[in-house]
Design brief:
Helix content is 52%, strand content 7%. By secondary structure, it is an alpha+beta fold. It has a four-stranded mixed sheet with strand order 2-1-3-4. It is globular.
């Protein structure tokens, strides 16, 4: 996986790409409902601001972050309601200012990270590189919710290789979070990045295989598309089961998106009216 030092710039670039999308929205569009039930565009930016703050806290104050985890474990709905209420109470400039401050705090804290070690989070502890990759994944995936809802364009980049890497690294977690034993069967993943470069993972001789665009794979592992709404080619029972359960983010099992919500296409398509 990429070193923490180089990931900091990629996280910042992904955050800037999303800000370019929302900065051009009229204020009324911030209330547009998204495909995340009960959340509008504003809520996704508040989510990113809050958890970028929490990521910075996890780096600089493990005890303080442990208190946040205890609050979350005592009642996830109440915990979510707290930061949602904060974001909903802010006007758009103030919400963007919060997110910018949180991003800067995370960036500053991350610069002091060693290349190895473990950082606490709401799920299993993570290495510094995985920790930062998770922030990039969250920015990209919640940004996908925003562009799906508003119809705004966001150009994907080869930063998707980080999301794909996290997607394959969390294969076992996708099972364990559902109380299932991860299978031992290997799965080969062969993807094409937005630049046209190849990205691969897994044994070449594996009988279970997944191939297609990095975008489609990342949409599935972040639960922004059902696999049937993508053009991924999935061979073998192990690969098919994984794509039904894939979850690259921490927390309880996600419900994902139902099949048929988006037309099947290589680039993920647009939502059906």
């Amino acid at each position: 996986m990429t070193s923490p030092a180089s990931l900091i710039d990629d996280v910042a670039a992904e955050q800037a790409a999303l800000e370019a999308v929302v900065r051009g929205l009229p204020e009324t569009a911030w209330a547009t409902p998204t495909f995340a039930a009960g959340w509008d565009v504003r809520d996704h930016i508040a989510h990113l601001a809050f958890f970028d703050d929490m990521a910075a806290l996890a780096i600089v104050d493990a005890a303080g972050f442990a208190n946040e985890v205890a609050l979350a474990l005592s009642g996830i709905d109440a915990y979510e309601a707290r930061w949602l209420a904060r974001g909903r109470a802010l006007d758009v400039p103030a919400l963007l200012a919060w997110w910018r401050r949180a991003r800067a705090a995370l960036r500053d804290a991350a610069r002091a990270l060693p290349p190895k070690g473990q950082l606490p989070w709401y799920g299993p502890p993570m290495s510094p590189a995985t920790f930062l990759t998770a922030r990039l994944m969250e920015t990209w995936s919640h940004g996908q919710d925003v562009v799906d809802a508003t119809g705004r364009h966001r150009e994907d980049s080869d930063r998707l290789r980080h999301v794909a890497t996290l997607g394959v690294r969390t294969r076992g977690f996708s099972y364990r979070v559902r109380g299932k034993e991860p299978p031992a069967d290997p799965v080969r993943v062969e993807l094409v990045l937005p630049s046209g470069a190849a990205w691969t993972d897994g044994l070449e001789e594996a009988s279970s295989r997944i191939s297609g665009t990095a975008r489609d794979f990342c949409l599935v592992v972040t639960q922004r598309r059902h696999v049937e709404d993508t053009a991924l080619v999935v061979h073998g029972g192990a690969a098919a089961e994984w794509m039904r359960l894939a979850q690259a983010f921490a927390g309880p099992p996600g419900a994902g998106r139902p099949p048929g919500l988006f037309p099947k296409s290589a680039d993920g398509g647009r939502a059906r009216p």
